[in-house]
């Protein structure tokens, strides 16, 4: 057992007994949504995982350890504290050695989940290739992590704040299967459509679990991106989102937002300028992903 891992007893017992466990990230709590909706959502997502027969393990850093499974009080803390780091892989050694509070991104959460032996991870949307990346070189470490770490990621596709097409090209280059659940078009987070075909489609949690097993049994390391379209009645049409996303990107350029601040800035800007409508869609899609993730974990 890794010295830096602190696995919650309930999660440890489930892993030992081979019961389904679903990993959850914490950047979405600390940097992806405003308080108190972030805490309500994180707790509701954990409950959704339980309702669908799996044990939730929300992951975060503090006291110099990687915590796998948080209490409700700890989730509340991460949702409200001001001095929480957004931790991707490159930040892990600093934040752990300094014993700071760290909320883990998709990349860092995947790595810690893998250390703990968890194979299924649920989030809202992954980081990807940003628009203009040919100049800015802004490509999320989520993608390089997905190349290396054998943990499946359940998402609602790729946010259209990113360059979706380039993100799909990158995933193809790195050998990461991309499978959409229940439709042929790849979804774009707030919207069910993206204008792009999904590379693969599967229609049941069992088929997805079977594919994961075959991939890893073949010795093909790395992730699978599972794209689960936002529920029909909660989506925001892609053409409506485009207006807000273009404005958010322009605001980020004007304010010279760079590096790790880009994604939180865009998400917050969009939530504010859609009167919370985007936030409601975001919450709905994460719960929807938690349900599918728990079903896949059960089948796996
Ligand atoms: N998608 C969301 N909300 C989020 C994120 C993604 O809907 O808060 C977070 C995830 O933690 C993801 C991170 O790993 O943003 C990507 O950040 P960056 O683009 O800086 O790699
Ligand atoms: Mn980035």
Kindly summarize this structure in a few lines.
The chain has 300 residues and is an alpha/beta fold.
Describe the structure.
This protein is of the alpha/beta class. The protein has one domain (5-299): Indigoidine synthase domain (Indigoidine synthase fold, 3-Layer(aba) Sandwich). The chain contains 13 helices and 11 strands. Strands 1, 2, 3, 4, 5, 6, 7, 8, 9, 10 and 11 form an 11-stranded mixed beta sheet that branches. Helix 3 (37-51) packs antiparallel against helix 4, helix 10 (205-217) crosses helix 13 (277-299) and helix 11 packs across helix 12 (262-273). The relative contact order is 0.15. The model has no long low-confidence stretch (mean pLDDT 97). Residues 25, 27-28, 31-32, 88, 105-106, 124-125, 127, 140-142, 260, 263, 267, 282 line the site of pseudouridine-5'-monophosphate (PSU).
